[in-house]
Amino acid sequence: MTETATATTTTTHVMTINMGPQHPSTHGVLRLLLELDGETIIKAVPHIGFLHRGVEKLAEYRTYQQCIPLTDRLDYVAPFSNNLAYALAVEKLFGIEAPERAQHIRVLLCELTRIASHLLWLATHALDIGAMTVFFYCFRERETIYDIFEMVSGARMHLSNIRVGGVARDLPGGFLEKTRKFVAEFPSRLDEYETLLTDNPIWKKRTVGVGVISAEDAIDYGLSGPSLRGSGVDWDMRKSEPYSGYDKYHFTVPLGRNGDVYDRYRVRIEEMRQSNSIVHQALNILPGGDFLARIPNVTLPPKEDVETNMESMIQHFKIIIDGIRPPKGEVYLSIEAPKGELGFYIISDGSSHPYRLKIRPPSFVNLEALPKMVEGRLLPDVVATIGSLDIVLGEIDR
Amino acid sequence: MNKMDNEAIATLVKTRFPEAITGSGIFRNELTLIVKKDCVVDVARFLKENKELDFNFLSDLCGVDRVGTDGIFEVVYHLYSIYKRHRVRLKAPIVSNDPRISTVTGIWITADWHERETYDMFGITFDGHPDLRKILTPDDFEGHPLRKDYPLDGRQPATLRDTYRKGEA
Predict the structure, then answer these.
(1) The domain containing residue A9 runs over which residues?
(2) Does residue A150 sit in the same domain as residue A15?
(3) B65 vs A contacts (CB less than 8 Å)
(4) Which chain A residue has its CA at the smallest distance from B149's CA?
(5) Where are the domains of chain B?
(6) How confident is chain A (398 residues) per 10-residue block, as mean pLDDT?
(7) A71, A345, A363 from A55: Cα distances, Å
(8) Among A25, A234, B8, B149, which one is most buried in terms of CB atoms within 10 A?
(9) pTM of the predicted protein model
């Protein structure tokens, strides 16, 4: 903690304090330099990059399939959404589509991911503000979702379950029952969280009117996802640019009004209800058929063919060793990830490696608006505001 | 207030800026406009302020290294209109021996961090940017890692690691 000699006309002492990079409420390795006058924040400067692993550079040296595990490690609390955005971008480059069953499996797992991501957000956000019980409740449900993920892919966190052209494997036995049970129970759990927070006077005092951003500013700052919808802007890419068959589902897009921490909280809580309903619909309409498209030189042939048919075995080896080669061109594809617009910009030069892979991470852009939301406010509001933006440093630093 | 199709957007922008737009293309139903780097601010402002286009949202801004093949860097802007629901991609080629271009932070505030990242990763200078500092790499990191001539396994001096161990960085 250092005191600087600079003083403005309204202040006598400006104190600069360092919040993070090891601070529990910065949700990772975010460092904030705060200039304070008493408890009022005059200036906030975020410093990022502590988790920079050069994912975009690495991707230029990997084949298109090898990039999938890299995407898991961006927003590591919602890996499936990252996989999906990347796979959709590569599919767009090829001009192919996943079979219907794969699309519904993707939606199903994507919405479970959204619930898991929002549960982690709610747990830590409430913990930051001092409501500890919520943390344990949320992690109880999140555990069930992670058990489901483990059934599907064998991994709990980094699923890498998507392939270009579909998903890696079909849903395992017991999946439908377990998921149905979760979907039936979850709405009552959500009510449970809400009884702890929504009308709680302490919660409201900490969140209502805090971290306010207007709709115009939110758009100008490039906010997306629940952080933008908290300000009342009706933009959800599942509705505006439906991908992976989202247009077949019925759901509403919850909106806030005031753009404060409380409204963003209400939006995410309602989103979990909607996601639960989407999962329920997906379970009911899940069609039969292939889980991976059959496209020569792009998708792996079915395992039983590889074991019995020489041509298929050669195909299999060629795809693994040489990689897949999309035509020359470039695409930008973005999806509604739990945090907002997650985009992949891929330039292909016709080889088996991306010439350039640019990731548009929602948290990176959302964090950029933090100083706007906290300057002029009190120090404890910073903690509440960071929580309400739901940032993950893995995708900010890449 | 309807979505415009790609051809209509291209025609509208080309009519307004016959000189500045040097090319356009549509691939996988995505419109790309190539714009002269000196005109990028004017074109961007038009795209945002024109009522029919209404590109109020800068989705993404990034650099691309094409020095090896064409001797240029590209700055790529992905624009979206939240109310009209259409997209466009702007590309501004800049010569590699003097990579600089005007900032668009005056049009979309969100460009601030994107331009800092592009500066950090490619060494492209954004003239008029309010606070052009490195953003992802440490202060004493040398070079621009996303340039194609930068090796994958890095080339930082061995002393850098010692600096971090001592906690002086």
Answers:
(1) 2-47
(2) no
(3) 356
(4) A57
(5) 6-166
(6) 46 79 76 87 89 90 91 90 93 91 92 93 90 89 92 89 90 90 93 89 89 91 92 90 90 91 92 93 89 87 87 89 90 92 93 92 92 88 89 88
(7) 8, 13, 16
(8) A25
(9) 0.89
